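Sample A.
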Amino acid sequence: MRYASSYLNRKTYPMYKDFKRYVLQACLKELKQNGGWDIGLEEKKTSRKVISVVFTIPRTEVKPKAVKKVENQLLSHLREQQ
């Protein structure tokens, strides 16, 4: 999955590091603790600037409906922040 930074709310999280800490890492930690998901996070950068985020979800442990559900939850959370 790839999501452009247009989903980020610059007023709530003006700094990417805050968004990463309070939203991305918190969500990934909760998914790992409560659901057993081991979702990877890779930042694509130009120099030091993060231009996109890639989530890696292992295929062997995830059912298609579950993937869609997590994707919808992440998008919903990002839209609520706007």
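Sample B.
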Amino acid sequence: MRVLDLVSEVGEISKEVLKATSYGKKPLELHKDKFSEEMGDALFSLICVANNSDIDLADCLLRVLEKYQTRIDEKGNPASNK
């Protein structure tokens, strides 16, 4: 399974955000080409994990959208802690 690949790719996304903000010292200004590449790598790794686990990502997305919509309807925002 490619879970470690997924974690690594999410780390690369985080690194791009940190670099783009000078480690939180300035507003986010992404270099879209590099950020887009890292997002694609993370998405590919996520799809591989889902496929290896026999998980339907489309179904997962629909369920999470319903969950967030319920939170918005009930509490006015999608956060789980409010």
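B remarks: The mean pLDDT is 93. The first helix runs from residue 3 to 20.
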